[in-house]
Structures are given as structure tokens and as C-alpha cells.
Amino acid sequence: MNNFPEGMPAIAQKFETAGNITEIKPLGPGFINDTFIVKTDKSRYILQRKNHLIFPDVPGMMKNIELITEHIRKKILAEGGNPLREVLTVTVRKPETMTEAEKKDPAGHLYYKDASGNYWAMCLFIEGSVTYEKADTPELCYKGGEGIGKFQAQLSDFTTPLNETIKGFHNIRWRFRQWDEALAKDAAGRVKDLKEEIGWIEDRREEMLDFWKKVEDGTIPTRVTHNDTKISNILFDGNGDVLCVIDLDTCMSSTSLNDFGDAIRSYTNTGAEDDRNLDNVGMSMEMFEAYTRGYLSQRKGNLTESEIENLAFSARYITYEQVLRFLMDYIDGDTYYKTAYPGHNLVRTHAQYKLLCSIESQYEEMKKIVDKYAR
Ligand code: GN1
Ligand code: MG
To answer: Ligand 1 in contact with 274 (CB < 6 A)?
Structure first.
């Protein structure tokens, strides 16, 4: 039985896999969900325990994922592509394992809730896919940008309303409400030592709200967006082309600028997200240009003027939000993100702040690059 973490085969068997299950192994390093790879004698699958403390409505989230992947699947089929490789395929429940209540639930076939209240979901593993923690070449940035641009284009005519899987996810007004509460509560007694870091957030509060106001008043349109486009959430093939976008948990309606900003935060960083050596961290303009060129090759002509004007700023916005979220979690006593050691969230805060400063110092040049490829 040592091929299986305890209790896992029974969970995996609730889903419609081809062949007999031969092995189940953990797959890292997500910050939110727990991920396993399930091998059968015919195929491989990804099994995830979805973190229901973070995603309060897992059935609603799975319904979003089903609707989105179905929509993309139809597009791929119409273009003669291979939907088993170019979009996630959700693995549904075996009907004989479902209760009557599950059968009546419109999302009941998409997840299994175990006796401890954990939610599990499965999808097909895409063979030959490669993931990266870091983008080492401009070519990979270009391809990554192209992949997200294509993903947004595939969903541009998706009109079914989606569930909001995490309230106010990239809404800085909402984040400030959480932030103000976290500071007032000071759950871990850490606020007294964080004067400088808290200043980093407060100094930029107004300019971030000014950006978000444009989303609230409709100046910047709302579209279906991924909201978590870091490089490790993209599957590439052996040639470095994007196969498909994964981790669809946060797909919701928001501004498409989130996807650009979060990708820039990830692809262009010369260091790691949690680098202890701040000398490593900064934004590479070469990588920025490559990602922007790739992204706009797919979205040119389909973005509004307001989106183009704010594209470069979105990198500042999302990186700032990430500094806030890591610091807020440190202040809260590390309750949201998985951490590998004490103080990990503070290390992440410092590394992301260094990146933010680097982006800010290169902002004028970034805007010029956007202008060069957007029109
Ligand atoms: C989390 O789920 P994962 O590990 O891809 C987080 C993102 C953060 C990211 C930072 C639901 O992404 O918002 O940007 O960590 N996801 C959620 O690496 O909070
Ligand atoms: Mg995620």
C-alpha cells in the first residue's frame, strides 16, 4: 500500500478514471490546494483537495470550471485542435458512487465531499506537459503572453454569469477593508515591528484606489479573467509552446488587466517570489517586452483604449496587492498561504516589495513598450 497516501485510493475511485489505479503521489508546490497525481494502468490524473476555507463555495467554483472548459473545448474542436491537450478536461464522478442529493446538485458530478468535509476534484493530466517556476528566456515570456492572450480571446464571447469564487479577489477596496481589520486586530502581535512595511502599503493607498475606481465606474471593462496567471499555472509543451492554462479556481469576472499584471509580476522577476537575497530581485525589461509582445499579438484590436492605457500600471497594481496580501497574512499569523518556515510571509513581502520598486522605476519605459505593440 505504500504507493498510496492513506485513504486516497477510496477518494480517487469516486471519479471516472480509465483503468485501475496503481499509484498516487503528492505533486507540489501550490500555496492553497493539495495536489496529487493519480496513475492508472491507462492514464494519469490530477486529484486536488480544494481548500474550502479559502474557496467557500467549491461546487460553485467547479461549475465555473466546467462552463469555461466546455466553452474553450468547443472553440478548439471548431479550429481542428486537440481539446484533450489544449484545455483542462474535468474528470467527473462515477454515477454509481453518487448519492441522490449529489445527483440533483448541478455541480454534484464535479466533486466529492469526504466525511471530514474536504472537497476533492479531478482532471486529466496532460502527458508531455512542462511547468516552470521561473522564465529564463524571452522566448518563454513571449509564448506565455501569447497563451494568456489566446485564453482571453477564447473566452471573449463567454456570457454565462460566473460565481465569485473568492470575494473581492483583486478588488483593492475590499483588500483595504481586510487590511484595516488585520491591523486593528493584530492577531499575532506583529504590527509593532512592521512600521516600515506598513508604510509601503499606506504610501500607495490612494493611487491604487484611483486605478480601481476606473474598474468600478466602468472606464475599464470587465471580462472573464483567470486572475492567477503566474508562470507555474501554465502548461507548456516540449517546444516551449503553451498547451493550456491550469488552476482555473479563480476564473471570474474582473478586469483582464489582472492577468497581464500578475504574469508580469511572475515572468519578469529575475529572482524568486520569496528570494531571501534581494539583489536577485528586479523586473527584467527584456522579459517585459517579450511577454507584452506575445500577449498583444493575440489581443491587439480587442482591447479598449482604457485597457491599453492601464496595462503597464496593472503590473504595479497586482505586485502591490501581492505585497499587501503577503504582509497581511504575516500580520494575521500566517493563516492563508502555506509557509515553509517561520517568517516566510515576511520574506515574500520584502521580495515582492523590491520587485514593486523595480517596476515603479521602469514604469515610463514600460508604457512606451505597451504603446509600441498595442496599436
Ligand atoms: C496563490 O494557487 P496558487 O499557488 O497558484 C494565490 C495567488 C497568488 C499566488 C502567489 C487563490 O496561487 O493569488 O498570487 O499564490 N491564489 C489564491 O504565488 O489566493
Ligand atoms: Mg491557484
So the answer is: no
With a 6 Å cutoff on the Cβ, whether 168 touches ligand 1 is: no
Beta carbon of 5 within 6 Å of any ligand 1 atom: no
Query: Is-contact 124 45, C-beta < 8 A?
Result: yes
**pTM of this prediction exceeds 0.90:** yes
> Which residue owns the Cα nearest ligand 1 atom 13?
228
In a domain, 349, yes or no: yes
Report how far apart, in Å, the C-alpha atoms of 138 and of each of 91, 152, 366 are. Answer: 35, 21, 15
Residues 147 and 27 in one domain: no
Q: What is the pLDDT of residues 143-160, one digit of tens each?
A: 999 999 999 999 999 999
Atom of ligand 1 nearest to the CA of 273: 18
Calculate the average pLDDT of the chain: 96
Q: Is 14 in the pocket of ligand 1 (CB under 6 A)?
A: no
Q: Are residues 240 and 190 in the same domain?
A: yes
C-alpha 226/C-alpha 147 separation (Å) is 12
Query: Looking at the domain assignment, is residue 18 inside a domain?
Result: yes
Ligand nearest to the CA of residue 175, numbered in listed order: 1
Could you tell me if the CB of 154 is within 6 A of ligand 1? no
Beta strand spans in 10-89 (E) = 21-27, 34-40, 44-50
- Residue 2: pLDDT band (50, 70, 90) is low
Q: How far apart, in whole angstroms, are the C-alpha atoms of residue 358 and residue 321? A: 15
Q: Domain ends where: 79, 96, 124? A: 124
Number of domains in the chain: 2
- CA 372–ligand 2 middle distance (angstroms): 32
